[in-house]
């Protein structure tokens, strides 16, 4: 048994995705886990388009409306203290209702705080990261934003990251 | 998302992806991933279902710990009931700009 990656997509979109030419990276970067999970500091990354409504701008959805083949490549920091009602969702490709009700379906901050309190992970880092996942061109992610995020993770002593595309 | 994971992994931070599309994790190459057959927007399961979210996280952390080599992708066989409703429920109420544009182009083409 395996997961059908295309089950939820309308037929024409599934066919488009299946037809994309894909090149596997070689070698795949590999950082073995350096310590037990119970000692690791974790950061969370999602592509659900989350942002802190009161202190950060939304993602540039108007830019995408003007050019439907472009998606805002920047990211927003979601602090570990973020409360559900402080979080907005800017993503034109999914129904945001469940994210607005429970962001843990894509950015499981509360679950990881529970794991931290139970001693099952070392700690949850101060900062977590939300991108907006519609990216026809990922070069800005690769060249600019992902390295910037990785540096910030290193600065915060992160050992491991859990990434949840949406 | 494979791009983000690879950059983070290359910086020396171990990564695991929880993805609805393990096809791409396998085809593009990532260090570690688990696949879930959940509707888009729900990589960890249902809103408000703490137990389900914790189970998926537990699987992701197990793969993070135990994956023997880069390119480890494990398919998790959680079920999402009510497919007929959810195959449209996950979608936005209005089509995204690119879908709207492509539909318009197809219609224009059909009308010649």
Question: Can you summarize this structure?
Answer:
The complex is a heterodimer of chains A (166) and B (112). By secondary structure, chain A is an alpha/beta fold.
- Please estimate the helix content of chain B: 40-55%
Per DSSP, what share of the residues of chain B sits in E-state strands of 2 or more residues?
5-15%
What is the distance, rounded to the nearest whole angstrom, between the alpha carbons of the first and last residues of chain B? 38 Å
- Considering residues with a beta carbon less than 8 A from a beta carbon on another chain, report the largest interface and each chain's count: A-B, 76 and 70 residues
Mean pLDDT of chain B: 95
What is the percentage of strand-forming residues of chain A? 15-25%
Secondary-structure class of chain B: alpha/beta
Describe this structure in words.
- The complex is a heterodimer of chains A (166) and B (112).
- By secondary structure, chain A is α/β, with parallel strands linked by helices.
- Chain A has one domain.
- Chain A is 28% helix and 17% strand.
- Chain A contains five helices and seven strands; from the N terminus they run H-E-E-H-E-E-H-H-E-E-H-E.
- Chain A has helices at residues 11-19, 61-66, 97-101, 109-117, 139-155; strands at residues 41-46, 50-52, 75-79, 87-89, 123-124, 127-131, 160-164.
- In chain A, strands 1, 3, 5, 6 and 7 form a five-stranded mixed beta sheet that branches.
- Chain B has 112 residues and is of the alpha/beta class.
- Chain B is built from five helices and three strands.
- The longest helix of chain B has 17 residues, at 50-66.
- Chain B is globular.
- Chain B starts with a helix and ends with a helix.
- Classes of the chains: A alpha/beta (166), B alpha/beta (112).
- Strand 7 of chain A pairs parallel with strand 1 of chain B.
């Amino acid at each position: 048994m395996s997961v059908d990656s295309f089950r939820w997509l309308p037929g024409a979109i599934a066919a488009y995705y299946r037809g994309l030419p894909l090149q596997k990276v070689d070698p795949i970067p590999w950082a073995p886990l350096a310590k037990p999970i119970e000692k690791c500091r974790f950061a969370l990354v999602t592509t659900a388009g989350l942002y802190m409504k009161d202190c950060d701008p939304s993602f540039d959805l108007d830019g995408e409306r003007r050019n439907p083949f472009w998606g805002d490549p920047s990211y927003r920091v979601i602090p570990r203290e973020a409360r559900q009602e402080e979080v907005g969702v800017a993503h034109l490709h999914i129904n945001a209702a469940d994210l607005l009700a429970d962001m843990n379906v894509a950015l499981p901050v509360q679950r990881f705080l529970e794991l931290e309190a139970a001693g099952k992970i070392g700690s949850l880092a101060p900062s977590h990261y939300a991108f907006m996942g519609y990216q026809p061109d990922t070069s800005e992610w690769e060249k600019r934003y992902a390295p910037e995020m990785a540096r910030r993770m290193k600065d915060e002593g992160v050992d491991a990251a859990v990434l949840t595309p949406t | 998302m494979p791009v983000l994971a690879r950059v983070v992994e290359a910086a020396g931070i171990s990564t695991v992806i929880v993805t609805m599309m393990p096809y791409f994790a396998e085809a593009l190459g990532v260090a570690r991933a688990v696949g879930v057959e959940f509707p888009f927007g729900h990589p960890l399961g249902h809103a408000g279902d703490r137990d389900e979210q914790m189970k998926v996280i537990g699987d992701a952390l197990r793969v993070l710990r135990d994956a023997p080599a880069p390119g480890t992708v494990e398919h998790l066989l959680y079920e999402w009931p009510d497919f007929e409703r959810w195959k449209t429920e996950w979608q936005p109420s209005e089509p995204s700009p690119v879908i709207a544009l492509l539909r318009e182009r197809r219609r224009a083409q059909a009308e010649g």
